[in-house]
C-alpha cells in the first residue's frame, strides 16, 4: 500500500496544525469510548493529548491517555510529526470539564451533554460564530490549516449528527469492537427528538445531538481564508456534513487507512455521499517495530488528534515515508 492514497497538491508557505478539543458526557458511559484507560478518565484525554503534543511528556496527571489495553494514544504520532516538521500546534478549547494544562485559544464553550437527557450543545450557534472568529484570527497566521479534533465519545455524536442530516452513516470507534448497539441507542433518541421538532438546520441538529467541537470546527473552516484540511475520521465527516447543510464550502478530509478499512464504519461511502474529497495515509504500522502501534492495524485507536493529518502535513512539507516512520517509532518508544 502506498503511504498516501493520492498525490495532493497544496500551494502554501505558512502551514499550521490546530486541534479542537472538546468533551461529551457520553464518553463517561461505560463501553462507549476507548479513548482513555477508563470511562472516567476519557474526559482528560484531550487535555493530556494536548500536553503530550506541546511538551513531549505528561506531568499533570499520573496516567496516559492510552486505551484500556494501553495502546498508545494517536497524540504520539501527532507529536512526532510536529517536532519533525518544526510546527507549533495551536489548540482550541471548544468546551471541556477541566482546564487545559497548555495554552489554548478558548471559545468558552461547555462540555456536550448526554443527548438522551437534554440538548447536547445548547449554544451551538454561538459556538459556530466563535469558531468563525478563530478562523479569521488563524487566517493571519497561516495559509494552510490542518484542523484536527480530540473528543472522546465523538464518534457517537458524529453518528447522531450524520444520521439526523440524512446520511446512511456507520461511524468508526477507538475500540476494536465498535459498540454499535450503544451508539445506535443514543442515535435513536436523538433522531426521535429531531423528528419530533421537525428540525433540518444543521446547527439545530448539533444543538440536539452533537458535541462542542463540531460547530467550532465548522466555524473555523467557513472563515479561514487559506486552504483547510480536516484531519480525522468519521467525526470530521460530520463537520463537513454540517458545512454542506449550511451551504458553505467543505474542506477535504485526511484520515488513516485504518479508518478507511474499518468494516464497522463506512467512511468512504459517506464521504462520497457528502461530496467531500478524502485522502488516506497508510503508515504501515504492522512493520514499524512497535506492538502497540501494530494494534492500529487490528482496529484499535485507528486515528485521533489529527494523527493522519499530521503525517499528511509532514509529507506535504517534504519529509519522506522513512523519516516519518522512524520519527513515530522513536517518539512512541520514548513515551512508553
Ligand atoms: C484521541 N485521543 C485518543 C484517541 N482519540 N487516545 C487514545 N485513543 C483514541 N482513539 P471514540 O468515539 O471511540 O471515543 O473515538 C473518538 C476519539 O478517539 C477521539 O478523541 C479521537 O481523537 C480519538
TrEMBL record:
GO MF annotation, one: nicotinate-nucleotide-dimethylbenzimidazole phosphoribosyltransferase activity
Q: Note the InterPro entries from the entry.
A: Nict_dMeBzImd_PRibTrfase, Nict_dMeBzImd_PRibTrfase_arc, Nict_dMeBzImd_PRibTrfase_sf
Q: So which domain of life are we looking at?
A: Archaea
Q: Which Gene3D superfamilies match?
A: 3.40.50.10210
PANTHER family attached to this UniProt entry: PTHR38811, UPF0284 PROTEIN SLL1500
Q: Which family does it belong to?
A: Belongs to the UPF0284 family.
| Name of the molecule in the record | UPF0284 protein Metli_1522
Amino acid at each position: 500500500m502506498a503511504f498516501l492514497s493520492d498525490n495532493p497538491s497544496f500551494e502554501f508557505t505558512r502551514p499550521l496544525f490546530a486541534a479542537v478539543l472538546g468533551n461529551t458526557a457520553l464518553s463517561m458511559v461505560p463501553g462507549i469510548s476507548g479513548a482513555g484507560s477508563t470511562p472516567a478518565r476519557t474526559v482528560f484525554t484531550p487535555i493530556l493529548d494536548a500536553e503530550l503534543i506541546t511538551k513531549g511528556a505528561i506531568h499533570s496527571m499520573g496516567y496516559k491517555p492510552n486505551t484500556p489495553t494501553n495502546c498508545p494514544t494517536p497524540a504520539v504520532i501527532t507529536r512526532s510529526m510536529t517536532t519533525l516538521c518544526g510546527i507549533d500546534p495551536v489548540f482550541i478549547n471548544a468546551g471541556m470539564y477541566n482546564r487545559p494544562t497548555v495554552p489554548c485559544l478558548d471559545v468558552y464553550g461547555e462540555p456536550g451533554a448526554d443527548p438522551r437527557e437534554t440538548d447536547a450543545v445548547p449554544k451551538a450557534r454561538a459556538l459556530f460564530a466563535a469558531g468563525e472568529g478563530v478562523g479569521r484570527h488563524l487566517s493571519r497566521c497561516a495559509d494552510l490549516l490542518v484542523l484536527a479534533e480530540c473528543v472522546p465519545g465523538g464518534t457517537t455524536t458524529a453518528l447522531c449528527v450524520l444520521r439526523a442530516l440524512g446520511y446512511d452513516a456507520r461511524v468508526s470507534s477507538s475500540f476494536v469492537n465498535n459498540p454499535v448497539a450503544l451508539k445506535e441507542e443514543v442515535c435513536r433518541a436523538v433522531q426521535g427528538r429531531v423528528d419530533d421538532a421537525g428540525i433540518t438546520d444543521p446547527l439545530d441538529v448539533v444543538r440536539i445531538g452533537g458535541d462542542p467541537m463540531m460547530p467550532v470546527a465548522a466555524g473555523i473552516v467557513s472563515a479561514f481564508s487559506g486552504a483547510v484540511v480536516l484531519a480525522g475520521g468519521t467525526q470530521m465527516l460530520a463537520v463537513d456534513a454540517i458545512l454542506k447543510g449550511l451551504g458553505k464550502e467543505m474542506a477535504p478530509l485526511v484520515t488513516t487507512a485504518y479508518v478507511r478499512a474499518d468494516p464497522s464504519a463506512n467512511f468512504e461511502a459517506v464521504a462520497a455521499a457528502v461530496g467531500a474529497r478524502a485522502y488516506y495515509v497508510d503508515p504501515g504500522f504492522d512493520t514499524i517495530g512497535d506492538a502497540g502501534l501494530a494494534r492500529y492495524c487490528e482496529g484499535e485507536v485507528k486515528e485521533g488528534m489529527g494523527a493522519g493529518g499530521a503525517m499528511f502535513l509532514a509529507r506535504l512539507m517534504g519529509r519522506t515515508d522513512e523519516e516519518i516512520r522512524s520519527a513515530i517509532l522513536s517518539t512512541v518508544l520514548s513515551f512508553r
